[in-house]
Structures are given as structure tokens and as C-alpha cells.
Design brief:
CATH architecture of the largest domain: 3-Layer(aba) Sandwich
Order of helices and strands: EEEHEEEEEHEHEHEHHEEHHHHH
Structural class: alpha/beta
Number of helices: 11
Number of strands: 13
Strand content: 15-25%
Bound molecules: guanosine-5'-diphosphate, magnesium ion, zinc ion
Shape: globular
Strand order of the largest sheet: 10-9-8-11-13-12
Helix content: 25-40%
Number of domains: 3
CATH superfamily of the largest domain: P-loop containing nucleotide triphosphate hydrolases
């Protein structure tokens, strides 16, 4: 029988596909598809031929969006997770994750975990910087159980991915949202997980009418796939100023009459955000270099 469903887990070459009736099928990919350079990840909607509780995937339906790191498709929300301390809060990593979500066209909020360890003023500072950029900041202490209700409300009925470096408390936060989850916590277990099956894909866990996806940590964030020309658009608060720059296609780095730079100097755009912009811009190879490599 032909069925449709969504890939909720990818493990050892098997795709676990859940239908609208919440039946889960263990599926493989039809050989013919493999030849056509198919791409399939958690979150994809697929068509499959069902036989008992198994299935053969014959088609991947068009994606609404796609996130490279972690590799997931058709997402409603990215929760960019950071910790107040241990590891120390990083504006740059937070901004990189926001840029990746923004470039993929996926809404994002910031979960600021470990508020129990927060240095004075950090929460206020984050609220100022990210509030101005249009992002909600949700303070949480997974350890003390603070801020969870707001987070639960935020993710209800959505397909949500938790993204953030190792150790900030993504798994702990998921466990705090729903103690049934029992995600493995701690740096050591992450290492084992990475060694055994190098999963860059995330697993979906059903929650409140949607799904939550925990993701393994990452070594470094690859910003090289971005286009320099599109980077400024991934900083929503630049838009109203960049329209007024003297030059069309202003890169907001060295040009005279740059209104983005002027706004940073007046304190209307957070200097940490502009610093991240410059730093990410440096990481993206110039167009010539890129085509030269191919
Ligand atoms: N103090 C404090 N520690 C936390 C909190 N949340 C997580 N941790 C600790 O941070 C470490 C990493 O947590 P984990 O959930 O594995 O992080 P992940 O790598 O992002 O999934 C563990 O030792 C947790 O016990 C918190 O709210 N406060
Ligand atoms: Mg984890
Ligand atoms: Zn400019």
C-alpha cells in the first residue's frame, strides 16, 4: 500500500517514517532513488510502499526548508541554545547559529541556559542585543527547573530543533521540558555517540503536538556555504539602515556613507552583532576563490 509520512529518525541505513496516524514504519530507500543522487534527512516527507511495519521509500516530497547543521528538513523553529557559563556565553557562536537559521528561512529564538551560573548583567545584555535584532530570549535553568513553561509554550505544536555547541545543556533542557525523554547528558556520552554512528542527523521526539530534535554537538560551524552578498540579510536589524547606504550592494565594511556602520557608532545596532558580521564575512571565501576551487 502506498503511504506518506515523515522521517523521524535515520539509523544504520534505516529511515523511521511516521504517518499522520502516528504509525511508524521502518523503511529503506529504493535502489533506483539512490542512483539519482537523492538527499534524505530527518524531517523529510516521503512516499513509501508499506508492507507490514516495513516500507520502501520511493519519493521525497519538496522541502519547505532545510538546515545543514544539524541536518534536518521542514522545521518550524530553531532554538539556538547557549549557556550563561561553563562554557562561557559566546556572542559569535550564537550569531552564527542565528545566521544559519535566518539563511534557511527558519524562525529562531534563543534559549539562554544555566541561568543559575549567570554572571551579573548577562541576561540583561542578551535581552538588549537580541531584542533589538528581533529575537526572543528565553532564560532557562535546566538544573533548577526555571523558565521551562515559557519554553514549552514556545515549542508547542511545532517541529523544533535545538542547536548549540556541546555542553550548553541541550539534552538537559529537553529532559527538563519532559522528564520522560531521558536524553543522555554529559560530554562523555556525546563522544561515545559520535564514535558509534556519526549522526549529523537529529532524531525527532514527539512533544505537545509537534516534535523536538536534540542534536549532537559540533566541532566547528561551517559558514563557507553562505554567500557574502546574502550575509547582511541574515542580520534582520541591519535592513532598515542598509537601504540608506550610499552604495548599492554596500558590504558595510569599508564603504563611505555606510548607514549600518553609522548605526553601530550611534549604538542603534549592537556592536557585538556587527563584530560577528565582520568575523563571519571573513570566513566566507571570496567568489573568485570559490569558483577557482571547483
Ligand atoms: N549549572 C547548570 N548546569 C547545567 C544546566 N543544564 C545542564 N547542565 C550541565 O551541563 C553539562 C552538559 O549538559 P548536556 O545537556 O549534556 O549539554 P549538551 O551537550 O548541550 O546536550 C552537564 O554536566 C549538565 O549537568 C543548568 O541549567 N545549570
Ligand atoms: Mg546533548
Ligand atoms: Zn553599508
Amino acid at each position: 500500500m502506498t503511504e506518506q509520512g515523515r522521517v523521524i529518525k535515520n539509523y544504520m541505513g534505516y529511515y523511521y517514517v511516521e504517518t499522520a496516524e502516528r504509525r511508524v514504519f521502518t523503511c529503506k530507500v529504493k535502489g533506483r532513488m539512490k542512483q539519482n543522487r537523492f538527499s534524505l534527512c530527518t524531517g523529510d516527507y516521503v512516499v513509501f510502499e508499506a508492507k507490514g511495519t516495513e516500507g520502501m521509500i520511493t519519493e521525497v516530497l519538496p522541502r519547505k526548508n532545510f538546515l545543514q547543521r544539524p541536518t534536518v528538513a521542514n522545521i518550524d523553529l530553531v532554538v539556538v541554545t547557549a549557556s550563561c557559563a561553563n562554557p562561557e556565553f559566546s556572542f559569535l557562536i550564537t550569531d552564527k547559529l542565528l545566521v544559519l537559521a535566518e539563511s534557511a528561512g527558519i524562525p529562531a529564538v534563543i534559549c539562554l541556559n544555566k541561568t543559575d551560573l549567570a554572571p551579573p548583567d548577562l541576561l540583561q545584555q542578551c535581552r538588549e542585543v537580541y531584542g533589538r535584532a528581533g529575537y526572543k530570549v528565553l532564560p532557562v535553568s535546566a538544573r533548577q527547573g526555571d523558565g521551562l513553561e515559557q519554553l514549552r509554550n514556545e515549542v508547542a505544536n511545532k517541529v523544533t530543533v535545538f542547536a548549540g555547541p556541546s555542553g550548553v545543556g541541550k539534552s538537559s533542557t529537553l529532559n527538563a521540558i519532559d522528564p520522560c525523554f531521558q536524553r543522555v547528558v554529559g560530554v562523555v556520552s556525546e563522544k561515545i555517540g559520535r564514535g558509534r554512528h556519526t549522526t549529523r542527523c537529529a532524531d525527532f521526539i514527539p512533544f505537545a503536538g509537534g516534535y523536538l530534535a536534540d542534536t549532537p554537538g559540533f566541532g566547528n560551524l561551517n559558514m563557507e556555504e553562505l554567500e557574502v552578498e546574502n550575509l547582511a540579510a541574515a542580520f534582520p536589524e541591519f535592513a532598515e539602515y542598509s537601504r540608506a547606504c550610499r552604495f548599492n550592494g554596500c558590504s558595510h565594511t569599508h564603504e563611505p556613507g555606510c548607514e549600518v556602520k553609522a548605526a553601530v557608532e550611534r549604538g542603534e545596532i549592537a556592536s557585538s552583532r556587527y563584530k560577528s558580521y565582520l568575523s563571519i564575512e571573513q570566513e566566507i571565501p571570496a567568489k573568485k576563490e570559490r569558483s577557482g576551487k571547483k
